[in-house]
Amino acid sequence: MTLNEALTDVNAKARGALPPEIFEVFEAARRRAAETKFAEVGDKIEDFTLPGADGTPTSLGDLVADGPAVLVFYRGQWCPYCNLTLRTYQRELLPELTSRGATLTAISPQMPDGTVPVEGLEFPVLSDVSSTVARGLGLSYPVSAPVREAMEQLGTDLEQVNGTWELVHPAVVVVDQDRTLRFVDVHPDFVTRTEPADILKSL
């Protein structure tokens, strides 16, 4: 089963578990997001330094010191699609990246004390508070009123976990050692994600 087949299965289960009116709010948000423009291959990304879950800072310079960096932007630990994706990358992608001299890092807009979504991750998980890095790539966006209301009904208060009602479109970017983007794959439809094989192919 591919990653996106597994994510589709998660979404099918969500359809059965969520109230229909709430599920439709999320589906409508997926459809609207498809028109957004993002950073492109060949663009430069500014250097950054972000804290990990334990507060230890990591810079982009650290990540590309010995080779390219694969940056995975995800929505947060409350997102089941994100958790499945990061577990899949841990299992299928991380060993291959290590053998190629590339690093893997996940980045979310959550506060530093709530960024780690899955136990046992062996790659850095960083906190992009206020979505500064994500906004520079065109990934950050304000949550609409209907989606905010639906999330609050499900017990997710982004004001508490992010400090703001703002999210990021899931994305994977590959950055070379001079901070040029060599691969950009953004998923405004948050149920889909970048397949591990496509990331490896980009390297």
UniProtKB/TrEMBL annotation:
Cellular component (GO) terms are:
cytoplasm
Q: Which UniProt keywords apply?
A: Antioxidant, Disulfide bond, Oxidoreductase, Peroxidase, Redox-active center
A GO MF annotation of the entry reads: thioredoxin peroxidase activity
Q: For this chain's UniProt record, which GO biological process terms are given? A: cell redox homeostasis; cellular response to oxidative stress
Record-annotated Thioredoxin domain positions: 39-203
Q: Does the keyword Membrane apply?
A: no
Give the enzyme class.
oxidoreductase
Q: Which superkingdom heads the taxonomic lineage of this protein's source?
A: Bacteria
- Role noted for this protein: Thiol-specific peroxidase that catalyzes the reduction of hydrogen peroxide and organic hydroperoxides to water and alcohols, respectively. Plays a role in cell protection against oxidative stress by detoxifying peroxides and as sensor of hydrogen peroxide-mediated signaling events.
Instruction: Give the UniProt family note.
Output: Belongs to the peroxiredoxin family. BCP/PrxQ subfamily.
Protein name per the record: thioredoxin-dependent peroxiredoxin
Q: Please tell me the species this chain comes from.
A: Amycolatopsis pretoriensis
Lineage, highest ranks first: Bacteria, Bacillati, Actinomycetota, Actinomycetes, Pseudonocardiales
